[in-house]
Specification:
Length: 80
């Protein structure tokens, strides 16, 4: 069964249930800014590291995770 996509408010609520907020997520994901965390939670972006960390924290956000798309494997802007 597919998990329903949570709204930003629902994600915030789920985080608060475990005693976390956006800043706590920021501290636990390396190499991202607090603004990236906020934008991902608000649905303006889909940072895979942040989405995966939310899942690890037990927040079933329902957003698609694109496995295997590391920066090295992306072809956009890549020079040979």
């Amino acid at each position: 069964m597919k998990t329903k996509q949570l709204s930003p408010k629902q994600i915030q609520t789920e985080l608060s249930k475990i005693g976390f907020n956006e800043y706590d997520v920021f501290l636990r994901v390396g190499g991202v800014s607090l603004m990236q965390v906020k934008n991902t939670i608000n649905g303006k972006s889909n940072n895979q590291s942040i989405l995966m960390r939310l899942e690890e924290l037990g927040v079933k956000h329902g957003r698609t995770l694109k496995h295997g798309l590391s920066k090295e494997n992306r072809s956009v802007g890549k020079r040979n």
